[in-house]
Amino acid sequence: MTILIVDDQENMCWILSKILSDAGFSVKIASTAGEARSIIYEGGISAAIIDYRLPDGSGLTCFWI
């Protein structure tokens, strides 16, 4: 299972990535909605943890594909 973490705060991404990786999940990280969209287009994402406020808009826009 691959989880996408979308947050513009590097420390938050690192902490969540560490916790999820230690629990056995594969993790991908994006710091903007645009990056997240690109990763989502590639496929293979099972779940996502998304910050609401991102530099290029709302975290919810990641899913308006």
Average pLDDT confidence is 90
Strand order of the largest sheet: 2-1-3
Query: Sheet with the most strands?
Result: 3 strands, parallel
Gross geometry: globular
Count of runs of 4 or more consecutive helical residues = 2
Q: Strand content of the residues, in percent?
A: 25-35%
Q: What's the count of strands?
A: 5
User: How helical, in percent, are the residues?
Assistant: 25-40%
Oligomer: single chain
Q: Which value, in Å, is the CA radius of gyration?
A: 11 Å
End-to-end distance:
21 Å
Structural class: alpha/beta
Low-confidence stretches: none
Element-by-element helix/strand order: EHEHEEE
Could you provide a short overview of the structure?
The protein has 2 helices and 5 strands. It has 65 residues and is of the alpha/beta class. A hairpin with a 2-residue loop joins strand 4 (53-54) and strand 5.
Helix and strand layout, with pairings?
Layout: E1 2-6, H1 10-22, E2 26-30, H2 33-42, E3 47-50, E4 53-54, E5 57-58
Parallel strand pairs: 1-2, 1-3
Antiparallel strand pairs: 4-5
Could you characterize the architecture of this molecule?
There is one protein chain. By secondary structure, the protein is α/β, with parallel strands linked by helices. Helix content is 35%, strand content 28%. The protein has helices spanning 10-22, 33-42; strands at 2-6, 26-30, 47-50, 53-54, 57-58. The strands form two sheets. It has a three-stranded parallel beta sheet with strand order 2-1-3, sandwiched between helices. The mean pLDDT is 90.
